[in-house]
Predict the 3D structure of the following.
Amino acid sequence: MADDGITFDGATAERGPLGGAETAFAALAEALARRGHRVAVRNRCRAALCHNGVHWAPLSDGIPPACDLYIGSRGHRVIGLVRQARRRLFWLHNPAGYLKKPRNLWRLARYRPVLITTGSYHATTVPDWLPCGGREIIPYGVLDGFRAAAPREAPPPRAIFTSNPLRGLDWLLDLWVVRIAPAIPHAELHIYAGETVYGSARAPRMDQVLARASSLASHGIRSFSPVGRAQLAAALSETRVMLYRGDPGETFCLALAEAQAMGVPAIVQPLGSAPERVIDGATGRVAEDDDAFAAAAIAVLRDDALWRQWHLAALASQGGSSWDVVAGRFEALMI
């Protein structure tokens, strides 16, 4: 498996905050190792290590010459790194329009990997004419720590946002201040977001959005630094609803999947993959416009019976797949 994105490894994935793509990459590697495979990862980790059965090393340490299954993740530079791979996959995590660039096209044409997308919406972003060795849809799994939640009593009127601040947080702040908070004076919106998730340099626009959120404490808005998966599960267990508009750049939204697996109702709009993560009217609401979004948020923050109905339905039907099941689907592509 290879990735040329941000710096991370299995140990940092276990204890620190990471984005969905990095979390998925580490989870799949470890699930394949648990199934008895010898798994070698090359990425931008700082040093070689073995963690939970996976052998991690920097890309600069060199690439194994051969393997049974090679999984390149998102970056064009990793498409053909293993020269003697019996089967090649290219795992996409973002909208696939970038594959039309020449630097990607010639690698796809030469190595013909099977393109792996994470859902129906994601698959629609892949141009039909792209050269490849086939196409498969394999949704992300959900870590067991989120799939083990038990039914609980209705929490206080507390909403949560755990996605990229550049994906609709500014919009949500407006809606919260103008529509939602005035209707429920004691409601709070907790934001777990920041640049450390993405391992990037300073992003002025993200700084501006987060600074604005921090300035709105008088409206019940509380800002927190990103946290690891165990701490995030704990925060979700005390949350009444996840509010996330959705975004055309969101191809799976692990944040929504984790919240729903924990039994947290979610309110979204029909943007990107967000509608694929929520069962409209059963585990939350896919709101057609801002008015419907605000109304649904107010209703679930206020109405204990509605919250319990959506909470129990989410626990019963939205646990998602374990990473062992997902690894089995990748494993089957070796045949």
